[in-house]
Design a protein that fits this description.
The complex is a heterodimer.
Chain A lengths: L4 E3 L2 E4 L5 E6 L6 E8 L3 E9 L2 E4 L8 E7 L2 E6 L8 E8 L10 E2 L3 E5 L1
Parallel strand pairs in A: 2-11
Antiparallel strand pairs in A: 1-3, 3-8, 4-5, 4-9, 5-6, 7-8, 9-10, 9-11
Chain B lengths: L2 E5 L2 E5 L4 E8 L5 E7 L5 E6 L6 E3 L2 E6 L4 E6 L8 E8 L4 E3 L3 E6 L1
Parallel strand pairs in B: 2-11
Antiparallel strand pairs in B: 1-3, 3-8, 4-5, 4-9, 6-7, 7-8, 9-10, 9-11
Classes of the chains: A mainly beta, B mainly beta.
């Protein structure tokens, strides 16, 4: 398995521009998570999906952020308009929901976003 | 509020030392506790613990869960410079994974 695949790996953009981050979860995993990591705040959960349905988006900072999962193999996180404080590493992660609760979260390589 | 707290926040040791990293949690409907290692990229999975008192071991790393004390420790013996990383603790409760802020370990030669 290729693991969780994210693109782009690096993105440099100017304030006000739209940014779209993409994620392909591991095949067979039915839960997908978007995290943001900064030195100041550590790993923050933005939103997660179960079976393509958004379950909890309480971590999404504001209306500028949106996420979609149109099918089991693809998700996007969009920031519009972007601001310098959005600069961070954005991780996508997936897991298989097991009735035992013994889930392991697998991370993608991350997308490093710099907003100038 | 569900939370996971790790200590210490950072640690500097010399090669060959033994270190113990701590993780305590207050998470409703606990299901499992996971340890991850993060170098300059994505966190990678180390251990998953679901039962108290059963040690998980992988080489020089080991971990144990105490569900009565709501805590876990990660031990690293005979540390090497390659162990330098951020170690993250996460707790899963059937809904989300709650992460601690991590312990930054620096192993000096």
């Amino acid at each position: 398995d290729a693991g969780v695949i994210q693109s782009p790996r690096h993105e440099v953009t100017e304030m006000g521009q739209e940014v779209t981050l993409r994620c392909k979860p591991i095949s067979g995993h039915n839960s997908l998570f978007w995290y943001r990591q900064t030195m100041m705040r550590g790993l923050e959960l933005l939103i997660y999906f179960n079976n393509n349905v958004p379950i909890d988006d309480s971590g999404m900072p504001e209306d500028r952020f949106s996420a979609k999962m149109p099918n089991a193999s693809f998700s996007t996180l969009k920031i519009q308009p972007s601001e310098p404080r959005d600069s961070a590493v954005y991780f996508c992660a997936s897991s298989q929901s097991l009735s035992s609760g013994a889930n392991v979260l697998t991370f993608g390589a991350g997308s490093r976003l710099t907003v100038l | 509020e569900d939370k996971v707290v790790q200590s210490p926040l950072s640690l500097v040791v010399h090669e060959g030392d033994t270190v113990t990293l701590n993780c305590s949690y207050e998470v409703t409907n606990f299901r499992s506790l996971l340890w991850y290692k993060q170098e300059k990229k994505a966190p990678t999975f180390l251990f998953m613990l679901t039962s108290s008192g059963i040690e998980k071991k992988s080489g020089r790393l080991s971990s144990i869960l105490d569900k009565k004390e709501l805590s876990s420790i990660l031990n690293i013996t005979a540390t090497q410079t390659g162990d330098s990383a951020i170690y993250l603790c996460a707790v899963y409760n059937f809904n989300k994974f709650y992460f601690g802020s991590g312990t930054k370990l620096n192993v000096k030669p």
